[in-house]
């Protein structure tokens, strides 16, 4: 078995190592999953830098998204699960050949969902669906989205449009604006005046998040779910007295959800992938051993799709 592991905090290219490890054995209630593919998300890389060191014990293996096949079952688990293609959810550790986790944390992958889409089905699509449900948009609502040209930004645009809302896509460059051609959104470059908004979805923080908050009408909601700028939202937000600000973290929802709730939510997410609302574009595949090349590709400013890692 091989895995990409962090023994210290730092730059992902420097802190992560490709290393052999013993094949793990499933314990009571566990399964052993042989990974087929995983991907790279900001939520995988940020803990490596030490940003969450208070809750990130070393060493650790990154990777929340991924798909694999149950290879072995532990005591108390139905042996019929062997051979099932699953999403191993609820914890990091997918940047490896094998992963042990509770059988209850696995979600079956429908036969018509490819490995490529399954490996990308959790973090972005589920987050997008849950946040749109939390906003409960009504037809005609204008809803602002920062980092709108990102993978999850495009999903939010499509889900909001399908709900009858009017997405306002906020982007940082002309290139990002052009990349959203054909998407059902009004596109505005960061710093330009925003129209009055019913709500907002912020993945950036800092000044961009503050500007989005200022445009939200009284009683509206800003859902803050990312920190791509590296800067937190200002303590005194413009418009803070008018709009409520809530932090959305997928891990909080998953930890509170029952296995049945998680499976039901993923069933809806698989439907979103089939319909194209939450389908992801794959730009490149790399073997896990070439993870540094994959990280460099992932960081390219002109990247227009997800990067897959194959064990």
TrEMBL record:
<feature type="domain" description="Enoyl reductase (ER)">
    <location>
        <begin position="11"/>
        <end position="309"/>
    </location>
</feature>
<dbReference type="GO" id="GO:0016651">
    <property type="term" value="F:oxidoreductase activity, acting on NAD(P)H"/>
</dbReference>
<dbReference type="InterPro" id="IPR011032">
    <property type="entry name" value="GroES-like_sf"/>
</dbReference>
<keyword id="KW-0560">Oxidoreductase</keyword>
<keyword id="KW-0521">NADP</keyword>
<protein>
    <submittedName>
        <fullName>Alcohol dehydrogenase</fullName>
    </submittedName>
</protein>
<dbReference type="GO" id="GO:0070402">
    <property type="term" value="F:NADPH binding"/>
</dbReference>
<dbReference type="Pfam" id="PF08240">
    <property type="entry name" value="ADH_N"/>
</dbReference>
<dbReference type="InterPro" id="IPR013154">
    <property type="entry name" value="ADH-like_N"/>
</dbReference>
<dbReference type="InterPro" id="IPR036291">
    <property type="entry name" value="NAD(P)-bd_dom_sf"/>
</dbReference>
<dbReference type="InterPro" id="IPR020843">
    <property type="entry name" value="ER"/>
</dbReference>
């Amino acid at each position: 078995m091989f895995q990409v592991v962090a023994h210290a905090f730092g730059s992902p290219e420097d802190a992560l190592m490709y290393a052999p490890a013993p094949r793990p054995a499933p314990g009571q209630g566990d399964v052993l999953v042989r990974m087929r593919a995983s991907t790279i998300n900001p939520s995988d890389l940020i803990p490596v830098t030490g940003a969450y060191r208070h809750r990130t014990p070393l060493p650790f293996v990154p990777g929340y998204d991924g798909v694999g096949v149950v290879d072995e079952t532990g005591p108390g688990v139905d042996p019929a699960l062997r051979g099932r293609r699953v999403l191993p959810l609820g914890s990091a550790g997918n940047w490896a050949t094998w992963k042990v986790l509770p059988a209850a944390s696995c979600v079956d992958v429908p036969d018509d969902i490819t490995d490529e889409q399954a490996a990308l089905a959790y973090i972005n699509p589920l987050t997008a669906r849950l946040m749109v449900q939390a906003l409960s948009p009504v037809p005609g609502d204008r809803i602002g989205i920062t980092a709108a040209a990102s993978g999850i930004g495009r999903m939010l645009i499509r889900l909001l449009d399908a709900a009858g809302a009017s997405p306002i896509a906020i982007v940082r460059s002309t290139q990002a604006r052009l990349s959203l051609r054909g998407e059902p959104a009004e596109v505005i470059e960061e710093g330009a005046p925003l129209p009055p908004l019913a709500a907002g979805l912020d993945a950036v923080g800092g000044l961009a998040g503050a500007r989005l908050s200022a445009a939200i009408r009284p009683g509206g909601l800003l859902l803050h779910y990312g920190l791509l700028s590296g800067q937190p939202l200002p303590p005194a937000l413009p418009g803070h007295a008018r709009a409520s600000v809530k932090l959305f973290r997928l891990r909080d929802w998953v930890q509170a959800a029952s296995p049945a709730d998680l499976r039901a939510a993923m069933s809806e997410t698989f439907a979103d992938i089939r319909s194209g609302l939450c389908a992801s574009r794959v730009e490149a595949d790399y073997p896990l051993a070439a993870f540094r090349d994959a990280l460099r590709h992932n960081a390219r400013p002109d990247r227009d799709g997800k990067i897959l890692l194959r064990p």
